[in-house]
Amino acid sequence: MSLLELTPSGLFCRQADIFIDPWKPVDKAVITHAHADHSRWGMKHYLAHQMSEEVMRLRLGEDIALETLRYNQAIVINGVKLSLHPAGHIPGSSMVRLEYKGKVTVVSGDYKTEDDGLCDPFEPVKCHEFVSECTFGLPIYKWEPQEKIFDAMNTWWKLNASNGMNSVVFGYSLGKAQRILNNLDFSIGEVFVHGAIWNTNQALLKNGLQIPDVPKVPAEIPKSRFKGALIIAAPSAMGTPWMKRFSPYRTAICSGWMNVRGARRRRAADAGFVLSDHADWDGLISAIKASEAEKVYLTHGNTAVFGKYLEEVEKIHAVELQTLFEGENSDLGDS
């Protein structure tokens, strides 16, 4: 790569002396978004989008040295022009644009091309080199419009409520939970959230994100209060004693992995909704083509298959990079 090199600590821009989403402690880290596999503890100085600030302080410590930028706000570091651009993945998620001596490299972090109505929508950035995720880089992954997914979710909740069942929906605490919250039909019943999600919501509300401010599940509450309710829970709560208070209940998982036959059954959930904060096959291709990049570097996901497609069909030079990014974890760990 002309501006970046892969080191044991992560992607490094030597000219600017900065790392992007490093996985080991470094002096200067540019963070694409606040998920745990991209935003790690131990950096001396962080740079991220302003919508990531409160969540990063919640997760990494209030006293971290953190500088924030707006989208499209450019700074120059030792001759390298750096700016952040909407990735559409979760609130605050950014693609990092680096320009030096007329050459432009863009690091995507994680992204999705569908406008979810929650975060700033994805904006393609033209470049010479594009570092792209490909978590769902197989042609079997093609998402339906989110309106259809949430219509099905609200119908499922309403049916459960009419049958005397509470509804528990599992989704990542950052990004997925807020997206679900923004699309629920509150006329059906009350909505509660897991404590980890409530803490994340408060951080995002403090940063100015527009989401319903619903209560967290209280430690002491009559079971009758949950009658017909929907509870958004972190995946880490699956199968724990915490769930007993909602009985009788039905469970659902929200993940792109629900697109694979048997994934819901393996997790012992009653329902699965194919909802991902990553680009699907078509989204990946459209984003890469819109970048007009001459060379694409692929990280975390189906890099071999997707790279072969880019080379043979789209005639775009593709290179696999071995990184420690996880994308949307198939084991539904809560990042």
From TrEMBL:
One of its GO terms (molecular function) is RNA endonuclease activity. InterPro entries: MBL, RibonucZ/Hydroxyglut_hydro, Xnuc_lig_assoc. This is Putative mRNA 3-end processing factor.
